[in-house]
Amino acid sequence: xxxxxxxxxxxxxxxxxxxxxxxxxxxxxxxxxxxxxxxxxxxxxxxxxxxxxxxxxxxxxxxxxxxxxxxxxxxxxxxxxxxxxxxxxxxxxx
Length: 94
Fold this sequence. Notes:
- The chain is about 35% helix and about 25% strand.
- By secondary structure, the protein is α+β, with helices and mostly antiparallel strands.
- β2 and β3 form a beta hairpin.
- The longest helix is centred in the middle third of the chain and has 18 residues, at about 30-45.
């Protein structure tokens, strides 16, 4: 399975690096960057093997029969960070 990432997701992760540093979750900018880069690498590498669950009822605005997977990035300095990804379970008929 190939993981496709929307430009908006990439932009969010780029801004997350700055947010984590500016809000002093990390004392060094390069540490915040490594944290987010490692998280992104985990998503790209492990998404296909993650357990996918049916999406809650408030996700219909993104499509029908959606599911999600949770990624937890744990570090004693910053706690736990979870990401939820939504994917369509069925292909749309043309």
